[in-house]
Design goal:
Chain A is α/β, with parallel strands linked by helices. Chain A has ten helices and 14 strands. In chain B, strands 1-2 form a two-stranded antiparallel sheet. Chain B has one domain. The chains are: A alpha/beta, B mainly alpha.
């Protein structure tokens, strides 16, 4: 067994440019061993580039990267041997069966002759795909393909799993299934870095969330702490015609409160601290989305 | 937990990485071997029959050989070319561009160098085997089998490895699969015709004969023919040398181009 690092991923001042575009801009990021860190940000925030750098499929222009104690990109191959990667875009071998796909990765991850069979069985078990083991991938449903992608990344019992948008494009029920699967990994003590642009996903699964915007880490913390610190405890959601909403915003700003527009409504943040705010609306608990919009000025979905 | 990898520095061109990529190819091959085998063997065989018997009825002997035997040995090189350069171009392009297979492989402990090497080894091995098909057909039509013909799969492997590197380079360099037709029309077809497959290059203008010396396919044809009719030590060393240098160059260039394409 290798040394158990206290930090599964450590990034310091990591920058990646593509021509004139700076995709990742001086990023600092830590994934403590055995925790799940959610990388939350809108499309184009640099999440996927960050993920690519952790497997040396993108090479940083500046900064230091360490994965499982290995220094990247020089020792990336050792790091990859102990990582599992679930890509955003499905890259399964579609003409092979479920079981064949898993065997291919048992080989690629260098499992010994006697280890491959049990490893594939275990992966089938985790992903609940035992009944489908002989089914060709192109005959599987979207949800099953996603489960297979995750199982494939676990076949060699990695210490760190990188999940890039694990549930993007899936219907809510399938998403719940995958969340349960990811949650069970966390329980086993696997370190996880998960990029997502679903607020709920980050809230549900991540011990720590880093909000990313324009290639930088805007804020890092536990979801509940971030909400308490940046959005207070309650939000007043006021619906109405544009003129009314403008009026609400004016009153709020005059009273030192922050607001954000959410389509047909205005959300007044930290309403619990306001005295005599006269407008009627629906009170709801503040959430990570409020934090996200307040800090980045961007809508997420 | 993978055994033995933890805490150890990993090296270049490791056997387990090559084995992993080869295993993937072999498993995939089980799902498409029929079509691959069909196109790689039937096409050269048709050339052999059409030229051998069609043209062979006009000319019975060419370059000192019975024409059917001349073409039979020549089409081995054609089979090697077709079964290596086309899969290397098309399936490589599909794998890294559309199926993103290479993204998946490079996320495992495999480097681009190992990936490209294993792919070229696989294509080379296939070409070595498929190259024997026209030879067997020629034997069925009267070519005398000789023990030296055992060299044919090895000649096919070395030549196929080189063509694989060439094809992977094309796949990694071209922006669109439509652009492959430039390579096929401007490079593959001329090389295919000026290789001494269907007629001896001695009938060509002098400049074309010089150019043929640079054509790996010509050297493949010569080696196969010598395997069937008798090796000529001096010139065969040159033919082997050219094929090995061709393989070495295309291998390194393919790694370089593929790395540029796959690693941002």
């Amino acid at each position: 067994m290798a040394r158990e690092p206290e930090i599964a991923i450590r990034m310091r001042g990591v920058t990646k440019r593509f021509g004139p575009i700076t995709a990742v801009d001086g990023l600092d990021l830590d994934v403590p061993g055995g925790t799940c860190v959610g990388l939350l940000g809108p499309n184009g925030a640099g999440k996927s580039t960050t993920m690519k750098m952790l497997t040396a499929q993108a090479i940083a222009d500046e900064g230091r990267l360490e994965v499982l104690g290995y220094s990247l990109p020089r020792e990336s191959k050792q790091a990859r041997a102990e990582c599992g990667v679930v890509p955003q875009l499905d890259n399964l071998d579609t003409t092979l069966t479920v079981e064949q796909n898993l065997y291919v990765f048992a080989w690629l991850y260098r499992l010994g002759r006697g280890e491959r069979g049990p490893a594939v069985e275990r992966a089938l078990e985790i992903a609940n795909l035992n009944a489908r083991r002989d089914t060709r991938v192109d005959e599987l449903s979207g949800g099953m393909r996603r489960r297979l992608l995750i199982a494939r990344a676990l076949v060699h019992r990695p210490r760190l799993v990188l999940l890039d948008e694990p549930t993007v494009g899936l219907d809510p029920q399938v998403r719940q299934e995958l969340w349960a699967l990811i949650d069970s990994l966390r329980t086993e003590g696997v370190s996880i870095l998960m990029s997502t642009h679903y607020i709920e996903e980050a809230e549900r699964l991540a011990d720590t969330v880093t909000i990313m915007a324009e290639g930088r880490a805007v804020v890092t913390g536990r979801p509940t702490d971030l909400v308490a610190e940046h959005a207070g405890s309650e939000v007043l959601e006021v619906y109405g015609p544009p003129a009314r909403l403008a009026e609400v915003e004016q009153t709020a700003v005059a009273g030192g409160l922050r607001t954000r527009r959410t389509g047909t409504s205005v959300a007044v943040v930290g309403i619990e601290e306001a005295n005599g705010f006269s407008h009627d609306g629906a009170r709801r608990p503040a959430n990570l989305e409020d934090v996200f919009v307040l800090l980045t000025g961007e809508d997420i979905e | 937990m993978t055994d033995g990898t933890a805490g150890r520095r990993l090296h270049r061109l490791e056997r387990p990485a090559l084995a992993g990529v080869l295993y993937r190819e072999i498993v995939n091959f089980s799902s498409y071997w029929r079509s691959a085998t069909f196109s790689s063997t039937v096409e050269p065989t048709i050339y052999l029959l059409a030229f051998g018997f069609g043209f062979g009825s006009l000319v019975s002997r060419v370059g000192g050989y019975d024409y059917v035997e001349f073409v039979g040995t020549g089409t081995v090189a054609t089979a090697v070319l077709f079964s290596s350069v086309f899969p290397a171009m098309f399936s490589t392009f599909v794998k890294f561009r559309f199926q993103r297979t290479y993204d998946a492989i490079l996320a495992a402990p495999v480097d681009t160098e190992e990936l490209v090497t294993a792919e070229a080894l696989w294509i080379g091995m296939r070409a070595g085997v498929y190259g024997c098909a026209p030879l067997l057909v020629a034997i069925a039509f009267g070519l005398d089998p000789r023990p030296q013909m055992i060299a044919v799969p090895f000649i096919g492997f070395v030549a196929g490895y080189g063509w694989a590197g060439f094809g992977i380079t094309v796949a990694a360099t071209m922006k669109s699969i439509d652009n492959f037709s430039y390579v096929i029309s401007a490079v593959i077809t001329p090389l295919f015709l000026v290789a001494g497959t269907f007629f001896p290059i001695t009938g060509l203008p002098e400049w074309a004969q010089h150019l043929a010396q640079l054509n790996p396919l010509y050297h493949t044809v010569q080696l196969v023919r010598h395997a069937a009719f008798g090796f000529e030590l001096g010139s065969d060393l040159v033919h082997w040398g050219v094929l090995l240098v061709f393989g070495l160059i295309t291998w390194r260039v393919a790694i370089w181009r593929m790395t540029a394409r796959l690693v941002m």
